[in-house]
Design brief:
alpha/beta; binds manganese (II) ion; 5-stranded parallel β-sheet; OB fold (Dihydrolipoamide Acetyltransferase, E2P); about 600 residues
Length: about 600
């Protein structure tokens, strides 16, 4: 194995903001072994090897994800104790509050656990905080309301709680049992006295660490059904069909929460997506119809991320996430249709509010912002003028994509100003902003790429100025260069139906499992092209006597003189939706005479 140093191959089109990252040349023996053992095209074997799946069993498991590959849920630290408590509650018809979160992951986690607890005989009550009035997590005041409202025997958190030291102590003081299930990074000071379930806990030896909140909720249910299902009339066969139908919800949450689509997440996602071809539940049926998913077809991960999850999230942004929860759990068809309609309206409103706010921000900074000088955009406005708290984060990410810098949007709220930030490229926004935020903010939280904060209104100007200074100095162009990661080189002669067919087995695509990207070298383009869509081109590339159908969805801006010549082409391979022939979808092309590519070979 010989590492290829990725060279800075600049594009002809956008002046060096993009470059190729070439893979380590795969070991030819490993490629050959996989090709023979799996009976796949050599190009597929090369991609597998370059993705770290050189082992035949690993590669096989990856290409056909199957529920039999799931880990024993009882290996998750805390699950045996949690099952014992919840089983006792269910047996005696006791009451338990499932405390969740307002996003797609949190709502899915609540839906899964309450459904199973109720089926097992518990009086399970859902509690989801209000995104704007309560904010995220098991805060003491919000928990107090949940407990006053439901007077439960026990409390289970999903998708939150691992930092809630005071709240857990308070609930235990009141004589409740507490089970915290979370997937966020545990703090060094953990809640004491409750049962904690989080694969990222230091003592937890569970083999897979990247489950989302709903994934953990699903694992807890799997354990509950194994331990107590038989007594409730749910034998192994029935259990499997319960888990399959709950996997439909877990799949939506897993994709929406942007956890890596590898390992157990890949199994849950593909099992659930396949199941969604026949959604059964009236809520999922209505939701898929509203999302324009063809009946009888499993949605793709992309359709979940761009159509289904935004709808489930819209209720929590505009109104209350209870609507999405009810949609996922109702058994009444007319109620499901009504809820889907309400959620559709919320999503339409969310979309237009977001578009308006993005426009307002871009207009406001048009004269003042310069990407060369400013490393960050920080703007604040009045709720009444469209700076609605529920959409600040998604609007910030749109603006960030536009200005190619991190963006923080806040809205005034009496003595406070609060909002959300989104990073751009590889800028460690959270880390870099933390010292400034800690000096001024009342609340500040997040991770590398996204953050939320609340400041006293009186500190806003000072915060904005100090943050601006940190970013003005810290602008490293390396952070903003977009890398096209190549999985493998590909010969024009390798583009065929068999390749397309094998590539389908890499789905579902998402975090840490992107659609494979190939580099095809030395293809000529005579410059002829037809426009397609808003910014795309359709054209033919040639290699010796071979012709390849190509489409480039962002290539329309390529000047005519840059369309003629011989190119190295970064592309994905699929069946063309119109012609039905294998074709390549061009991400970018680079003039072919690039010497730093000469060292890379196909096998
Ligand atoms: Mn989550």
């Amino acid at each position: 194995m010989r590492p290829e140093t990725p060279g800075p191959e600049e594009t002809a089109r956008n002046g060096g903001t993009r470059r190729l990252a070439l893979p380590v040349a795969p070991n030819p023996e490993a490629v050959e072994r996989l090709r023979l053992a799996l009976e796949v095209p050599a190009a597929i074997a090369r991609v597998l090897v370059s993705r770290g799946l050189a082992n035949v069993a690993d590669a096989k498991a990856f290409l056909s994800p199957d529920p039999s590959g799931l880990h024993d849920p009882f290996l998750l630290a805390g699950i045996p104790q949690a099952v014992e408590k919840l089983a006792a509650t269910a047996r005696s018809g006791g009451r338990v509050v499932v405390f969740g979160d307002y996003d797609c992951d949190g709502v899915g986690a609540v839906a899964i656990l309450t459904t199973v607890l109720r089926r097992l005989g518990a009086d399970a009550r859902a509690f989801i905080p209000h995104r704007i009035h309560d904010g995220y997590g098991l805060k003491p005041a919000v928990m107090a309301r949940a407990l006053a409202e439901h007077e439960p025997d026990g409390l289970v958190t999903v998708d939150c709680g691992i930092t809630a030291v005071d709240s857990v102590a308070e609930a235990l003081d009141r004589g409740l049992y507490v089970i915290v299930t979370d997937h966020h990074l545990p703090p060094s000071a953990l809640p004491q006295g409750g049962i904690l379930i989080d694969p990222k806990l230091p003592g937890c030896t569970y083999p897979f660490k990247d489950l989302c909140g709903a994934g953990i909720s699903w694992k807890l249910c799997e354990a509950l059904l194994i331990a107590t299902g038989e007594a409730a009339g749910i034998g192994p066969q029935k259990r499997l069909s319960w888990l399959a139908s709950l996997a439909k919800i877990a799949a939506l949450s897993t994709i929406a929460d942007m956890v890596p689509l590898t390992g157990e997440n890949r199994i849950l996602a593909s099992w659930g997506l396949a199941g969604l071809a026949d959604p059964r539940s009236p809520g999922l049926t209505a939701l898929l119809a509203r999302s324009a998913i063809s009946p009888g077809c499993p949605p793709s991960a992309r359709e979940v991320a761009f159509r289904i999850a935004p709808r489930l999230n819209a209720a929590g942004r505009i109104d209350h996430a209870y609507r999405s929860l009810e949609l996922l759990t109702t058994t009444d068809k007319s109620r499901a249709d009504a809820l889907a309609e309400e959620i559709e309206l919320a999503n339409t409103e969310r979309r237009s509010m977001q578009a308006r706010l993005v426009e307002v921000v871009l207009k406001r900074i048009a004269k003042t912002f310069s990407a060369e000088r400013d490393g960050i955009v920080i703007e604040a406005g009045e709720v009444a003028e469209g700076w609605h708290r529920g959409i600040l984060g998604i609007a910030a990410s749109r603006v960030a994509a536009e200005v190619r810098r991190p963006v923080l949007l806040l809205s005034w709220d009496g003595e406070w100003v609060s909002g959300s930030g989104r990073t751009y490229g590889k800028t460690p926004l959270f880390e870099r902003l933390a010292p400034v935020a800690r000096r001024h903010a009342r609340d500040f939280g997040g991770h590398e790429a996204a953050l939320g904060l609340t400041l006293p209104a009186s500190s806003y100007d000072a915060f904005r100025e100090e943050a601006g200074r940190v970013f003005a100095d810290g602008g490293d162009p390396e952070e903003w260069i977009e890398e096209i990661r190549i999985d493998s080189l590909l010969l024009a002669s390798e583009v065929n139906r068999e390749l397309v067919h094998s590539l389908q087995k890499f789905e579902p695509h998402g975090m840490q499992n992107p659609r494979p990207v190939f580099l095809l070298r030395g293809l000529t383009w005579d410059g002829a092209a037809r426009s397609v869509g808003e910014s795309g081109l359709r054209f033919t590339l040639r290699h010796e006597s071979l012709r390849l159908d190509a489409v480039g969805w962002e290539l329309a801006a390529t000047p005519p003189e840059a369309r003629r010549g011989t190119f190295d082409v970064a592309a994905q391979v699929s069946l063309d939706a119109y012609t039905g022939r294998p074709s390549i979808s061009v991400l970018d092309l680079f003039p072919s005479s690039n010497p730093s590519l000469e060292r890379a070979t196909c096998s």
